[in-house]
Amino acid sequence: MTTINRTTATATRAPAAASTALTAPPAGLKEGDTGPKVKQLQDALVALKYMTAAQVGAGAGTFGPKTEAALKKYQADHKLPSTGFYGDLTQAALKKDLAKLSGPTAPTKPETKPGVFQKPPVVNSPSPNFDDRKGADIDTIVLHHTASNNGAADLAHMRDPKAEVSAHYMVDRDGKIYQLVNDQKRAWHAGKGELHGVPTDVNGRSIGIEIVNDGGGKTPYTEAQMKSLTQLTGYLKQQYNVPMGNIVGHKDVAVPKGRKSDPSANFDWERLRKGIS
């Protein structure tokens, strides 16, 4: 770990009792965003002495220049890319710092509980192939097979702007999970579709997960893949309150019917559903 040199901010931290309820908001915030998640980020920055209460103000949070400047300073102090974008790495650092504010005498909570999923480790591999959800809530998870057994090639294809395709996550055959698109953005994975027979913008409301498999129905999905997929799907289901009936395959939502066949017939839906129930 890199040593953080932030003597002034450390010396003037807020009292532990005032910050025990603070939590880091989900990643994916940037200048121009508004709402309670932005206010949550600002409150955390106030507690860590990167902003003042006067700068934040009352009401719903607005991610303006002052918030961006504070976030860039925080990122620089933590040896993170000083982009002003609140992404996964910054969220992880913020979680650790907020946990420290509770003090060494605070009761230790277990990292995991039965039936509760933590986000599994992911390799950030950004794809340019996404756009905005335009306010749509995430309520669906769509599973795909990549139609090849070559994860490196599949990843490269989804990161190629000329391909105009992507997914939020790809689970390789060794179980490694790659994140290509932030959850809050609209990845291009489902195309024209419907949900439970009702035409809808599936991409706008869903998280797309690609599983590296040729899709022929004979190549097994590996044990490592199924374990990683179960943890990832369980986490996403929990994080976004996705109904079990909205965890579907591409073939279930693509129109016209029969246009897609993924995930292939040998995918173990029973195991996945049992693992995330």
Mean pLDDT: 87
Order of helices and strands: HEHHEHHEEEHEEEEEHEHEHH
Query: What number of structural domains do the residues give?
Result: 2
What is the 3D form? elongated
Major sheet, described briefly? 6 strands, mixed
Structural class: alpha/beta
Largest beta sheet: strand ordering: 3-7-6-11-5-12
CATH A-level architecture of the largest domain: 3-Layer(aba) Sandwich
Protein name: N-acetylmuramoyl-L-alanine amidase
Family: Belongs to the N-acetylmuramoyl-L-alanine amidase 2 family.
Pfam family, one: PG_binding_1
InterPro entries: Amidase/PGRP_sf, Amidase_domain, NAMLAA_amidase_2, Peptidoglycan-bd-like, PGBD-like_sf, PGBDSf
Helix and strand layout, with pairings?
Elements: H1 7-11, E1 34-35, H2 36-47, H3 53-56, E2 61-62, H4 65-77, H5 88-101, E3 123-124, E4 130-132, E5 140-145, H6 151-158, E6 169-171, E7 177-179, E8 185-187, E9 193-195, E10 198-200, H7 202-205, E11 206-211, H8 223-240, E12 247-249, H9 250-253, H10 269-276
Parallel strand pairs: 3-7, 5-11, 5-12, 6-11
Antiparallel strand pairs: 1-2, 4-8, 6-7, 9-10
Helix pairs in contact: 8-10
